[in-house]
Design a protein that fits this description.
By secondary structure, the protein is mostly helical. Helices cover 64% and strands 0% of the residues.
């Protein structure tokens, strides 16, 4: 049972309606996450703007989704795990790789370095070590990429925490992965 109400797009008004209509037009559905955020249109607008800005960065959709899965795994966010697994699948990522990404790893060495670092950011609450920075650099990421990894982690921390507070109803195919001890 959700703790915060989702706004029905059919009865929404003002900024909430405009934002929810725009989401449906863009992705073909209106996820419960966004319906619930629409209780505060400024928050929904900020979240969407942050995501849109990051989509113009150096990480492609698959890499951004990989970071999202890693953060969801670190925070045990059922909603985000299900949503980002479904999105990853639509981006042609196979099931084994999706599960690796949930556990903060990847079969691609460069992405693996980014995901290990993303998981360290979450686990260490941002207090990463010089060694952590050296390792992400040695995986092929420069300062700009490191900044974008932090930004992608931050936006996903927000949605994870939001879903924990709201107990958002999962409206994507539910998935469960075993949490790796190696992450």
């Amino acid at each position: 049972m959700p703790r915060l109400n989702a706004i029905d797009p059919a009865t929404a008004s003002g900024d909430a309606k405009e934002l929810l209509d725009g989401i449906k037009k863009k992705i073909g559905m209106t996820p419960n996450l966004f319906k619930t955020m629409a209780n505060a249109p400024a928050v929904l607008m900020a979240h969407l703007a942050f995501g849109d800005a990051l989509s113009g960065g150096r990480f492609d959709a698959q890499a951004r989704e990989a970071i999202a899965l890693t953060v969801a795994g670190a925070n045990s966010c059922e909603y985000c795990t299900s949503a980002h697994a479904a999105i990853s699948k639509s981006l042609k990522v196979d099931g084994d790789e999706i599960e690796r990404r949930y556990n903060g790893r990847s079969g691609d060495p460069k992405l693996d370095g980014a995901l290990i670092f993303a998981r360290q950011i979450v686990d260490k609450r941002g207090f990463v070590t010089n060694e952590d920075i050296a390792n992400v650099r040695s995986a092929g990421h420069d300062d700009g990429a490191i900044v974008e990894i932090v930004a992608n982690v931050a936006t996903n921390l927000f949605t994870n925490y939001f879903n924990h507070v709201a107990e958002t109803v999962v409206d994507f195919p539910a998935v469960e992965f075993e949490q790796s001890k190696a992450a």
